[in-house]
Amino acid sequence: MQLHPAIRTSRATALSWLWILAGVLLGDSRVAAQEPAPMQERLAVFLDCGFCDGTFLRQEMEYVDWVLDREVADVHVLVTQQTTGAGGQAQTFDLIGRRSFAGLDQSTVYTTLAGATEAEERDGFLRTLQALLVPYLLQTQTGERVRVDIAAERSESAAQAQPADDPWDHWTFELYADGGADFEASQRSIDIRYGLYVNRVTEDWKVQLRPFFNYNQDRFDRADGVIERISRRNGFTSYVVRSISPHWSVGAFGDVFTSTFDNVDMRYRLMPAVEWSLYPYREATRRQLTLTYRVGAAHIAYRDTTIYAQIEETLPQHALNANYEVRQPWGQIDLGASGSQYLHDLSRYSVEFEGGVEFRVTQGLSIEVGGNVAFIYDQLNLPKGDADLEEVLLRLRQLETDYEAGLSFGFRYRFGSIYNNVVNPRLGGLGSQDRF
């Protein structure tokens, strides 16, 4: 009896599926699924962090391979940080899976306390990174040695990053002072700086008050007499910022300023401001594009009569700033443009462009380019008369110019071993002993 072609095909298909099923159940090697590829032995990690203690991490995490180029890494660890309102650091970890781990990405934030020691910050960083690497380690032969250790729960007051009952109401205070002195047989130099930061940062408000003081003295003993120059730069800056939405903020900036270098006896300035951010502010550690506009006025009393025959004047002014920053696995870009203009005379303005790019071209090769250029037509504070030689050499007086520019460039190329697991601290702190 002849079967219809469709029936013969259907019967053949059914028999084929039964044969495959029987082979799987009986372990027939001809039809059984292939065994998975063996796990790799160790995890290759590329640490992309400009402030991390790489030596400490290599000492504590000897079970991974620390590679020097992301192209050969299994995991790219990108770490950025921002200062918190309390004065600590919010460190954002972005782990990017590569090669066989492509698509396995994760991110978290570790926050340090303002009063934490360097050792405490370092240990917290280590614990965070170790925990984040567990999903990757479990897919290597090292995963057999992974153990989970949960520390005992701390008291509620210690565990909370921001207690509900904060006696300081988010206010923080930071005093600073530093200085230096150089002495030789015929000259001496003293430099002193001190001041105070007062901050309050919440989700809705950002406030800063900052008095600062700078003193510099240079003395030169010469055969024809003694030359002594003293310069001061003191002031008080402040701002208050109100969050409106994930993309908008408003605020005001105010300052009081005096400077011998700038020929300013006293300046009072107030400038309300508004800012727009293309990306939500929460993404600021990885990318941001902001536009800021300020408008206000300054009242200035000069130390000496200016080249425009002014000893005191009130100047209305507005300014626009644009900033773009991005940090990605391929490198980072920082670009900025700013301009300010006096409203009583629109020909008095200044414009500045600055930027830097670091780009990883290929394995082991990266290039860096940076520069700035400024066009200056608003030096209304310049004093009458020519500066003497000492004032020019010691930079004690601002000089007239219509532009400033700078350029930097370089490249880095590394070849040879891609691993960097060995730690050797011998004679590491001695440095160069040559005087010349």
Account of the protein in words:
The termini are far apart. A hairpin with a 2-residue loop joins β15 (349-362) and β16. The strands form two sheets. The protein has a twelve-stranded antiparallel β-sheet, with no helix packed on it. Mean pLDDT is 81; it is low at 1-33 and 155-160. It contains five helices and 17 strands. The protein is elongated, with a radius of gyration of 32 Å. It has 436 residues and is mostly beta strands. Among the domains are: 43-145, 2-Layer Sandwich (Double Stranded RNA Binding Domain); 278-422.
Give a topology summary:
Elements: H1 5-26, E1 43-48, H2 54-60, E2 64-66, E3 75-83, E4 89-97, E5 106-111, H3 118-137, H4 156-159, E6 171-183, E7 187-201, E8 205-222, E9 225-243, E10 248-259, E11 264-277, E12 287-302, E13 312-328, E14 331-342, E15 349-362, E16 365-376, H5 389-393, E17 403-413
Parallel strand pairs: 1-2, 1-3
Antiparallel strand pairs: 3-4, 4-5, 6-7, 7-8, 8-9, 9-10, 10-11, 11-12, 12-13, 13-14, 14-15, 15-16, 16-17
Strand order of the largest sheet: 6-7-8-9-10-11-12-13-14-15-16-17
Element order: H for helix, E for strand: HEHEEEEHHEEEEEEEEEEEHE
Biggest sheet, in brief? 12 strands, antiparallel
Q: Tell me, what's the shape? A: elongated
Number-wise, the strands total 17
Residues in helices, as a percent range:
10-25%
* Terminal-residue CA separation: 106 Å
Alpha-beta classification: mainly beta
Helix count equals: 5
Give the uncertain stretches in residue-range form: 1-33, 155-160
What would the average pLDDT be, to the nearest integer? 81
Work out the strand percent.
over 45%
Radius of gyration, in Å, reads 32 Å
